[in-house]
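For reference, the entry.
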Amino acid sequence: MTKARLLRLSVVLVSIFMILLIIVYWDNVGTAHFYLHTSFSRPHSSGAIPGITAGEDWEALPDVDEFLAKLLSSNLKQNSSISRKTEQLLVQGSSKPVVSNLEENVRGYDWSTHNAQNSLDQEKLQIERQRTLREFCANSSFTFPTKERSFDDIPNYELNHLIVDDRHGIIYCYVPKVACTNWKRVMIVLSESLLDQGVPYRNPLDIPREHVHNTSTHLTFNKFWRRYGKFSRHLMKIKLKKYTKFLFVRDPFVRLISAFRSKFELENEEFYRRFAIPMLKLYSNHTNLPTSVSEAFGAGLKVSFSDFIQYLLDPRTEKMAPFNEHWRQVYRLCHPCQIDYDFIGKLETLDEDAAYLLQLLKVDRLLRFPPSYRNRTASSWEDDWFAKIPLAWRQQLYKLYEADFVLFGYPKPENLLKD
């Protein structure tokens, strides 16, 4: 009799425990996260650019999946409703945001007006960019490292550039030196992930740079494992399937010039110690270098562009550690052959692309994209910067970044690759 009571008591306790576990999990992960459908790259019709209208035009799903998909749609619509309630507050203030950061005051902004009815047909432009990307991803004769692996094969630490905004159903893959500071600011405002005296930031330019690049500020895919455990990949695939995914790219060689100017022509303690000192020792034969960047600059010891190119081409560089994100290839940062991006923006058409994207995301009434820098590195500078770089190095450098040129439709710089 006692054994029977103990058995019944054990069953009751286990049942209570399981119920509590389910309640806690449901509260923490959300109903939508029980949807374990693994397909994440739905095909888009060639005649339209997908927005974030969750729940519309989704392909036929099994009954349970359809039910959970509707829950996710309902959640997104609820968040959208909340956003509309705060819309009037967010659009208050001057049309020219106050710039509080000293560096940005020095660099200056381009406040020139841009005609919204620009000559670019944005919808056709997006179709063409996506078509180019998908064709070369499917082209077996065009190969590059990691192209053939699946999304499941990508390690978590390589997913740290995918920022998620669950409030509006958006995923942004940021590429350093491609307006990523301001796009991160936009994501912070939309997701309300950072508060200023208890109130979410309303103006992207009010957010200090040190907070923008703080990894704790953003929810990124590589954090899913700690939060969701074994369900993390399933949740990533759900969000990749349902959310609008975008990235911005740039001419690969111009991006390298911009990275060099930013990290080695300005005093940057971290980059001096991690990268400049080894470069100066290996490629300029300097010894007994100063320990601080200010001392080095005072003594006229700076990394040259030639040193930087040698560093990129040196096979020892990748053996020691992967490329720093500021010069790592876009295909390694954003995995464009594994993730079906809905929008591909370019820095060369930043103002037009940004305005169009915010309209597609239905957030253009909440905020405006911050203005461009006046001194943005120009494509026309390539000839001058590469003039003293040997032809063989330029050709090797192109092979190193060829996938970024081809996938995103940048023309091969023939003038730099021939005598």
Summary: The first helix runs from residue 2 to 29.
